[in-house]
Amino acid sequence: MSLLEIIIIAIGLSMDAFAVSITLGLSAAKPKMREFLIAGIYFGLFQAIMPLIGYFAGINFANKIQHSDHWIAFALLGFIGGKMIKESFSKDEKKVSTNPFLFKSMILLAIATSIDALAVGITFAFLKINIFMAIVIIGCTTFCISMGGVKIGNIFGVKFKSKAEFVGGIILIALGFKILIEHLLSH
Fold it and tell me: DSSP H helical segments within 60-102, as ranges?
């Protein structure tokens, strides 16, 4: 998997955190640098940790299912992408507490937005990529995008939330197809 593909996956994974960050920006009257950093650190850290956990879980059984790993990667990325697209059409807005930047709120939001990254980490185990480079890219990308989401949410509101989730879903599905096609054409 190329560096560009990892960056594209990082952008796709960060769309859930971006959408939630927009919501956080909506709830903050005038966010300070502290709120931008809180969103970036929580979301970036969890988006980096979850693929690492998934990767180590995946390498324990990757050699047992190596003959179908491309199908698993395709299914996982397709499922995650489909879920994101479905959520982009949802009319339900997540309600946040009076101060959504508190530890309890942020930890729950960070876990909820990074579950998909766990499955991507399992996919990474099948693809034999440099997991440490991947998690740094995913974490840093999500950090920056989340900070931007807080600002955008504060300025523009929920206008872009569903579009971000939709685009992220499309990216992950496209990468799943690419992995499947490359494997099928190489054999």
Answer: 69-88
Q: How far is CA 173 from the centre of its chain?
A: 13
Look up residue 157 and give its two tokens. 């509101």
pTM of the model: 0.75
Rounded Cα distance between 93 and 23, Å, is 8
For the CA atoms of 18, 23, 24, 27, the dihedral, rounded to the nearest 10 degrees, stands at 160
CA distance 160 to 146: 13
For helices 103-127 and 33-59, give the axis angle rounded to 10 degrees: 40
Distance (Å, whole) CA 26 – CA 81:
25
Alpha-carbon span 127 to 66, nearest angstrom: 10
pLDDT 10s digit of each residue in the chain, 187 long? 899 999 999 999 998 899 888 878 877 778 899 999 999 999 999 999 999 999 998 888 766 766 776 787 788 778 877 887 887 787 655 544 467 788 988 998 899 888 889 889 988 988 878 999 999 999 999 999 999 999 998 887 656 667 777 876 787 788 778 878 888 888 7
